[in-house]
Amino acid sequence: MKVRVFSTPSCPFCCMAKDFLKENKIAFDEIDVLKDQRAAAEMVEKSGQMGVPVIIIHNKGKEEVVVGFDRKRLCKILQLEK
Questions:
Q1: Domains in the chain, start-ordered, CATH in brackets?
Q2: CB-based contacts of 77-80 (< 8 A; 24+ apart in sequence)
């Protein structure tokens, strides 16, 4: 499984999402869309959103896009008991 979090440093929901992943021992790559315009364009293309966080989860050939910090959906996708 590969998890990528598109975020900005000052976004409180981004911090909540990253803290959630860390607490659940889910490894992820953090992408600062303020510093990486190519990544920002990819985020918009995949999510249709300009807001952060956008979390993209690749698992078993399937890609899930989560817009915002949606704890319930993340738990379902990551198969966590919460």
A1: 2-78 (3.40.30.10)
A2: 78/1, 78/24, 78/26, 80/24
